[in-house]
Amino acid sequence: MALIVHKYGGTSMGSVERIANVAKRVAKWMRAGHQVVVVPSAMSGETNRLLGLAKEINPNPSPRELDQIASTGEQVSSGLLALALMKEGIDAVSYAGWQVTVYTDSSFTKARIKSIDSKKILNDLNAGRAVVVTGFQGVDPEGNITTLGRGGSDTSAVAMAAALKADECLIYTDVDGVYTTDPRVCEDARRLDKITFEEMLEMASLGSKVLQIRSVEFAGKYKVKTRVLSSLTDPMMPLDQEMKSGTLITFEEDSTMEAAVISGIAFARDEAKITVLGVPDRPGIAYQILGPIADANIDVDIIIQNQSVEGKTDFTFTVPRADYQKALDILKGTVQAHIEAKEISGDPKVSKVSVVGVGMRSHVGIASKMFRTLSEEGINILMISTSEIKISVVIDEKYMELAVRALHKAFELDQK
Question: How far apart are alpha carbons 314 and 337 in whole angstroms?
Answer without folding.
Answer: 15
